[in-house]
Amino acid sequence: MGVWMNAWGIIVAAGRGERLLSASGGVSKQFLAWRGAPLYWASALLLARCARLKGLVFVFPEALLAEERARAAALSAKASLGLPCRFAAGGKRRQDSVCNGLAALPDEATHVLIHDAARPFASPALCNRVLDELEKGAAGVIPGIPVTDTIKVVRDGEVAHTPDRETLKAVQTPQGFLLVTLRASHARALNEGWDVTDDAMLLERCGVPVRLVEGEPGNAKITRAEDLAMLEEKSAPSVVRVGYGYDVHAYTDPEEARARPLRLGGVAVPEGGFAVRAHSDGDVLLHALMDALLGCVGGGDIGQLFPDADPALDNVSSCVLLDEVMTLAREKGFSLEHVDVTVIAQRPKVGPHREEIRKNLARLLGLGVESVNVKATTEEGLGFTGSCQGIKSVAVATGRQTRG
Ligand code: CTP
Ligand code: MG
């Protein structure tokens, strides 16, 4: 049986970032813009991915508390942390900031993970390793990694001694604690005037064992000017996006009010005099393609974007709508690389128009023809396409989206 746990996270973001102020143009490092948000937000998102945490406390410099609190609320409205958040003003030293953060925790909290805002690269797996040890009953848990350099203890410019490297660990955050123990250690530190650089040191001084878990070499703390390069490398990563679209239109009497002569991929397909029932021009291929593009950028579907009831869209060209979707996708940092579309119809025959459709799509999408594939098939006389009641199309779009 594990220990019953109500664990909260504390993000300490109240430092000055003295050591890189000149390189950052006077901005304290936790507020540097990274992936479309201040750096501390990345550290908060990382803790928020840890399902066992019940809430987060942000500790900001006192003078910026109201401003940053509002900014965190706005960021949360965009991409919710899914956790209740509290806010506290920081203090002069890191340990004072932690102390204020502890005071802001709710009564029901039993454990806490304290994380530096300046360590945005830690993984949720690391948080879970720390929480696992707390659940097993540890009062203090810290991540550490082996040191690669030989470390010397130096006094007055002279080497005093060389500790055995095997016994040394470079420690990181998040550090996890049983709250009663950490609070008691902080109270004692206050009474006795201790000055420490991390919370584990307080427990050590109080004689409480602190357990070590494997840290992560990638979990660096942005500290000096040269560390800014780590943010640059990771500031514009692009991710592959794949979107899928599907659309159907019913064939109808060409004389009917909402009948539109058949168009596929912006190309007229007059053979057989087929017409589809639609509000726009009813280009089933372009509709499937637009949904695939919206799928790539989390943009919902064309029904949401272009409602059927909108009189402005009556008989509108789907090429115009596609242009709007492309603009929207680009604004979201999406760059299209490839599309693959299939038209499913018993009649008319699409094959004779395939190359023209392909070229037209390449033009509309700004792609080379080699990046556009158009296929057509029947359903062997089966279903609504087989009985020529309608036509359908599916599309897959692939591209890359840059974050931030
Ligand atoms: N921190 C804090 N309150 C302080 C000092 C530090 O909340 N009074 C936070 C920092 O914002 C940072 C983390 O503690 O996220 C780790 O501290 P450190 O790397 O030393 O940051 P700074 O103190 O801001 O940097 P510097 O020491 O270069 O001034
Ligand atoms: Mg500091």
Total tally of structural domains: 2
CATH topology of the largest domain: Spore Coat Polysaccharide Biosynthesis Protein SpsA, Chain A
Number of helical segments? Answer: 12
CATH class of the largest domain: Alpha Beta
Rg, Å, rounded:
30 Å
The CATH homologous superfamily of the largest domain corresponds to: Spore Coat Polysaccharide Biosynthesis Protein SpsA, Chain A
Describe the structure.
The chain has 2 domains: 7-231, Spore Coat Polysaccharide Biosynthesis Protein SpsA, Chain A, CATH 3.90.550; 238-402, 60s Ribosomal Protein L30, Chain: A, CATH 3.30.1330. It is 30% helix and 26% strand. The protein contains 12 helices and 20 strands. It has helices at 39-48, 65-78, 94-103, 124-135, 179-192, 199-205, 228-235, 284-296, 302-305, 318-331, 354-365, 383-386, and strands at residues 7-12, 33-34, 37-38, 53-60, 85-89, 111-116, 140-146, 153-155, 158-161, 169-171, 175-178, 211-214, 238-250, 259-261, 263-264, 267-268, 275-277, 334-344, 372-377, 390-402. Strand 8 and strand 9 form a beta hairpin. Helix 5 (179-192) packs across helix 6 (199-205) and helix 8 packs parallel to helix 10 (318-331). The longest helix is centred in the first third of the chain and has 14 residues, at 65-78. Bound molecules: cytidine-5'-triphosphate (CTP) and magnesium ion (MG).
